[in-house]
Amino acid sequence: MTQPRLNHVQCLDARGLHRMAYWEWGDAANPRVLVCVHGLSRQGRDFDTLAAAMAPEYRVVAPDVVGRGRSDWLADPAGYVLPMYVADMVTLLARLDAQTVHWLGTSMGGLIGLGIASLPNSPVSRMVLNDVGPTLQPDAIARIGAYLGLPLRWNSLDEAADYMLSISQGFGRHGREQWLALTRPMLKPDGDGFKPHYDPAIAVPFRAVTPEIAAAGGAALWKAYDAITCPTLLLRGADSDLLTRDTAQAMARRGPKARLHEIADVGHAPMLSVPDQVAVVREFLLAG
């Protein structure tokens, strides 16, 4: 598989500047751009398989959201919030110099895309939301919060992969080699072992969310969703604990009236690394 190019862009935060890494596949001069953004504790290399499939038609760009992967960690953990991520992506879009972009976002990456697509004069002209919506289930948030930011260390790649698998049952079935490929970018060397690739402090604002804050955030996200006008595909893992079928069906009725596609035998969230899932995304994006 063709290896992506690694680039960086400087972004502004409350304490100064930080560098955001982004991975890029395909012709850098191609005006057709697809931005793929990962979930809360993941990183841009999650999209290796999908990007390879899309690179003949697109310049594919997958950032490591700040605090993850090859991007800088913030001096102030209070910056690990959606408005900061949206601002960073606006900076990235300026760097890419594309008139319009297609957007694919998994979980948190979908919420970032939702925020950008709802803005007046948004460059997002077609969007895929992967197992996420304005209403998020508290039980799923609690499940994620139980492992986010833990001080973990593993002695080997296999040990790390086994742990990652234990907290990622919703991703669906993957062969061992495929799972190891998904695990390697999730690790940072630590002596003769490995630790997670992300800043543990990303958990600080996540754990500070109260039911009242969550309710206000959900109302704001629905307002943003209703402002979106671009064609939208909503993917839902049929067994998802984060995005309920009721919320997904509401998203199909209002706002951009997303086209809903459920993926059997997957929870939160489809990894878009198997042929049938890639095919659904390709068909929708290339139709535009």
**H-E string:** EEEHEHEHEHHHEEHHEHEH
Shape descriptor:
globular
How many H/I helical runs? 10
User: Describe the biggest sheet?
Assistant: 8 strands, mixed
Q: State the low-pLDDT regions, or none.
A: none
Features:
288 residues, alpha/beta, two-stranded antiparallel sheet, 10 helices, 35% helix, 21% strand, globular
What does this structure look like?
The structure is a single chain. The protein has 288 residues and is α/β, with parallel strands linked by helices. 35% of the residues lie in helices and 21% in strands. It is built from 10 helices and 10 strands. The chain has helices spanning 48-54, 82-96, 108-117, 138-147, 157-166, 176-183, 203-207, 211-226, 245-253, 275-286, and strands at 5-13, 16-25, 33-37, 59-63, 101-106, 124-130, 187-190, 193-196, 232-237, 259-263. An 8-stranded mixed beta sheet has the order 1-2-4-3-5-6-9-10, sandwiched between helices. Helix 9 (245-253) links the parallel strand 9 (232-237) and strand 10. Helix 2 (82-96) packs across helix 3. It is globular, with a radius of gyration of 18 Å. The mean pLDDT is 96.
Produce a short descriptive summary.
The chain is of the alpha/beta class and 288 residues long. Helix content is 35%, strand content 21%. It has helices at residues 48-54, 82-96, 108-117, 138-147, 157-166, 176-183, 203-207, 211-226, 245-253, 275-286, and strands at 5-13, 16-25, 33-37, 59-63, 101-106, 124-130, 187-190, 193-196, 232-237, 259-263.
